[in-house]
Amino acid sequence: MIFARFSALRVSLTLIAVTYALVAPLAFAQPPKGVQTGATVEGVTEYQLANGLKVLLFPDQAQSNVIVNVIYLVGSRHEGSGETGMAHLLEHMLFKQTKIHKDIFKELKDRGALYNGTTHFDRTNYYEAFPPTDDNLRWALGLEADRMVNSLILKSDLDSEMTVVRNELERGENDPDSVLLSRVLHTAYLWHGYGRMPIGARSDIENVPIERLQAFYRKYYQPDNAILVVSGRFAPEKVLPWIVETFGRIPRPERKLYPTYTVEPTQDGERLVTLQRTGDTPTVLVAYHLPAAPHPDFAALEVLGMVLGDDPSGRLYKALVDGGKAASAGGGASRLREPSVATFSASLQKGQSLEEARGILLTTLDNVAQQPPTAEEVERAKTRILKSLELQIADGQDLAMGLTEWVAIGDWRLLFLHRDRVQAVTVADVERVARQYLKPSNRTVGLFVPTEQPDRAEIPPVLNLAAMLNEYKGQTGVSAGEVFDPSYANIEKRIQRSQLPGGLKLVMLPKKTRAGLVLVSVRLFHGDAQNLVGKQAVADLTGAMLGRGTKAKSRQQIQDELDRLKTSGGAGGDTEYSVGALQTTRENLPAALGLVAELLREPSFPESEFAVVRSEKIADTEQTRSEPQTIAMTEILRHLGPEQVGAPRYIPTPDETIADLTKVSLAQAREFYQGFYGASHGVLGIIGDFDPGEVEKLARELFDNWNTPAHTEPILREAVNVEPVDRWFETADKANAFFVAGLSLDMNEDHPDYAALTLVNHLMGSGLQSRLAKRIRRQEGLSYSVGSALTVPLRQKRAQWVATAITAPENILKVQDAFRDELKKAFEQGFSGEEVEQGKKSYLQEQEVGRSMDQLVLTRMMQLARWDQTFARDQRKEQAIAALTADQVNAAFRRYLRPDRLSYVKAGDFKRAGIKY
Predict the structure, then answer these.
(1) In the structure, what pLDDT confidence band is assigned to residue 274 with cuts at 50, 70 and 90?
(2) Helices (runs of H) and strands (runs of E) counted in the chain
C-alpha cells in the first residue's frame, strides 16, 4: 500500500534435481530438548525455544541460497515521546559491532551475502542470503544470536550513524508525496503510534541520549520478542540443533513486555491537512480508518480497495485519469497489526485543477455506498489479489521474506488465512464494508465541519488470534523444483540456443522450478543511427501504447487475461528496441506468451488512451524536474556522452522531453510502429519449467513471419574525450543534495583491462565495505547512499565510471573533499595485497549469488545471445579477476581513474545552507 513500503529481498529460484516434489511438513522423531513443536502450514513449521524465541523453518531444496531472517516485534508503534525513530536508528546501529563481531559489514561482504535491515510500524527485521554451506549458515546464526543481545550501541557509533539516518530522513523530505503522507497520518491518528512514520522526528534522532537508546535495545531485542525464519536449501535436522546451540543459550529476560494499549478514538468529523512546499505535481490524498488486518472484514476491505484504486480498472482511475482530470490515481487498504487505514490519492500535472480532482475523488468514494461494486468488479479484484498472494506463496524466497509482514501483523499463518478469506469474499461483503467504513466523518482530507448528527465508523477491537487460528491448518502443499547448480559449466550445459528462419534468436534454460515458474523476455531491435534521428519522443509514446489495447482486446481485457493466467508482465518500447516480458507458470506459458506476442504485433493505438499515456509521461517528467538527483545525473550523463540533438542516444533535458512529447500525434506513433517494429532482429529468452521443443515451435508461430521494415543494425559509439567540468545547480527547498563525479573510458568487455577495472570499482565504491562507503558513510556519517558504478558495454567502446552520494546541502563540500581524498589515497598509495585478495573473494562470491537469481541470468543470457556469445566470456572474466595481483589492480586504477580527469556535478539548496561556490 501507499505507506507500507517494505524492501523485500527478491531472490530468484535456481534448482538441480530432476524430481518434482511436494513441500512436506518437517518431521523430527524427537526435537531437541526444550524445543516445542508448533503448527505446520503449507511447508512452514513453527518451533519455540525455552527462552521464548519462535523459529519458523521452511526447507526448500529448490532454492540455491539460504535466508536467515530475524524479526523483532518492535517498530514505530512502540515508540513513546522522545523515542521516535529509535527502532529505525537501532536497525542501523546493529550493523556496527558486537563483542565478537567487530566489523559486521566486512564479514557480510566477505561471504558474498545479500543483506539488509528494514523498519516498519510493527516490526524490525534483519536478513542475509548466502550460498548454502554449513559454515555460512552456522556463522549467520551465530551473528544474529550475538547481535540480539551483545550489540555494543556505542556513543561514537551513534554520533556517526545519526547523521546518516538524518540524511535518510532528509531524502524523504525531498519528496512532497512522502511528506504529505506523513502529515495525513499524523492528522488521522491523534494518539496512536501509526501517526508517526518509522523514520522518526529530526529532533529525536539528533538528540536521543545513548543511554535511552541502549535501554530501548535491551527492552525489545530479546528472544521472547523475536521470530527467527530460516528458509532455503538446508537440512532441518541439522539446523534446529544449531539454533538451540546459538540462540538457546540466551536467557529468557526478566523484564515483562506490555502490549501497546493506546486505542485511537472514533473519528468524529472530516479533517484537513495542507502542505505547502516546492514541487511540480499537485496531489490529493485521502485516508480512512479501518480494522486491523487480522479482522474478518479486512479481506473485503482489500477487495474494495482494489475495486476503487486499481489501474486501469479502478473507479478512481476511470473517473480521474480517463476523465483527463489527473495523471494518475489509485490506492487501497494497508495491512497493519492494529486498526489500520486505507489511502486513496490522485496526482496531477500542471494545469489540472486540484480542487476539481479532489471533488471527483471524494464523490467517487462517497458514491460507492450508493452504487455498490458489481460482481465483475469484485471478481476482477479478487483475481488480482489472489494472483499476488499465490505467486508469493509459490516463490519460496518471496514467501520467506513475506512472512515478515504477517508475523508483524500478529501470526505468520495469517498469510494463508487471508488468502482463504479473499477467496470467500462476496459482493455483499464488499458493499457492507463500503457502507460501514467509507464515511465522510471517518476520513482525513478536508476541513473540519461540525455535524448535528455525526455518522461515525466504529472500528472493531483486535481479536484473539490464538483462538481464531487454533484449528487452522491451511491448504495443500506447493510443488517444489530441482536443486540447480548455478556454476557456469552447468548453466552452459543446460542452455539451448537456436535461430528462427526469420532472424529471431532463441536462448532457453529449462529447469524444474517451484510451482512451475517461468520467466520470459523478448527484445526486438529496430532502426539504426540514421533512421532513428529525431524519433525519441514518438518512440517512447509508441512503446507506452503497446499495453493499452490490441485489435482484439481492450486495456482492461488485457489486464483481466494476465490475472486469469496468473501472469505478471506486459510490453513496451523505446527508441532502439521493444520488449515483452512475463512471469508465469508452465501450464499458462503458451497462452501468456501468445498474449505478449499479441501486445507486440497487434496494438490498436486507441485514441482515448493516447492522451492518457502522454499525460502520464509529462507528469512523470514534471515530478522529477526539480529533484537534485535528476538534475545532477542528467547533467553528468549529457556531459560524459555528448550526442547531437535528436540522435537516438541524445539525453534531453526535462524541458526538452516535455516539449517533444507535447508535439507527438497519435498518427505519428502509428507511423513509427508500422515503420520500425518487427522480429527480424531480436532475442527471445526463457528460463524455468518448460518444454524447449514446444517453446521453439510456439516462437515460430508467434514471431517468425514478422519482418522488421526499417534497416536495423546496432548503434555502436566510440568514446569521446571531454574536458573535466565542475558544475553547481540550485534546487530550492530541497532537504537533500546530490553529488556525482564521473569520467568516460575507451573500453568494452574485450578490453584487456576490463577485469582489473571491475575489481577497482568493487574496491572503491561497491557496497558498504568499499572505500567510499567506509569513509563517507560509516566513518564520517555524511551520506546514507554512496557508491560507484562501472558501466562497460559488451561491444561498444564507450564505458563510464560514475560515483554518487546523497547528503545534506551543508555537507556537500565535506562529501566532495572526502571523495577526493579517498581517490588521492588510492592513486598514490594503491590497494594493499590483502585488500585486493579480500576484494577478489567477496566479488566472486557476489557473482555466485547473482547466478542464483533467474532474472539476472535471463538478462545476461539474452545480452550474450545478441552478440552470439556464451557464459564462457563471463567465466574468463572471473578467472582473470581471480588471477589479478595488487600491482595489476593499482596500475589499472592509475591508468584510468586519474583524479584530474573527473567531472563533478552538485545539485541542492546551497544558498539556504550558506555554501559558496
Answers:
(1) confident
(2) 33, 24
**Of 485, 584, 494, residue with least CA distance to 851:** 485
Instruction: Tell me how far apart the alpha carbons of residues 617 and 190 are, in angstroms, rounded to a whole number.
Output: 38
Return the closest-CA partner of residue 504 out of 484, 482, 521: 521
Write the burial class of residue 824 (CB in 10 Å: 0-12 exposed, 13-18 middle, 19+ buried): exposed
- Cell numbers describing residue 516: 512451475
Residue 912: in which H helix or E strand, if any? helix 910-913
Which residues lie across from 520 on neighbouring strands?
582, 686
What phi and psi values does residue 172 have, to the nearest 5 degrees? -65, -35
Confidence band (pLDDT; 50, 70, 90) for 190?
very high
Indicate the pLDDT class of residue 456, thresholds 50, 70 and 90.
low
The arithmetic mean of pLDDT across residues 68-86, rounded, is: 94
Closest CA to 663 of 538, 764, 575: 538
Q: How far is CA 27 from the centre of its chain?
A: 35
Residues 6+ apart with CB under 8 A from 69: 125, 126, 127, 228, 229, 230, 231, 400, 401, 403, 404
Task: List, in order of start, the domains of the chain with CATH numbers.
Answer: 21-246 (3.30.830.10), 283-450 (3.30.830.10), 488-703 (3.30.830.10), 726-913 (3.30.830.10)
Q: What is the pLDDT of residues 786-819, one digit of tens each?
A: 999 999 999 999 999 999 999 999 999 999 999 9
Kindly list the distances between the CA atom of residue 408 and the CA atoms of 41, 70, 122, 171, 536, in Å, as whole numbers in the listed order.
18, 12, 6, 26, 46
The residue that leads in pLDDT, 25 or 869, is 869
pLDDT value for 481:
85
| Phi and psi torsions of 477, nearest 5° | -70, 170
The CB-side HSE value for 38 (13 A sphere, CA atoms) comes to: 20
Question: Does an H or E element contain 684, and which?
Answer: strand 682-688
Give Cβ neighbours of residue 381 (< 8 Å, ≥ 6 apart): 303, 304, 306, 307, 310, 373
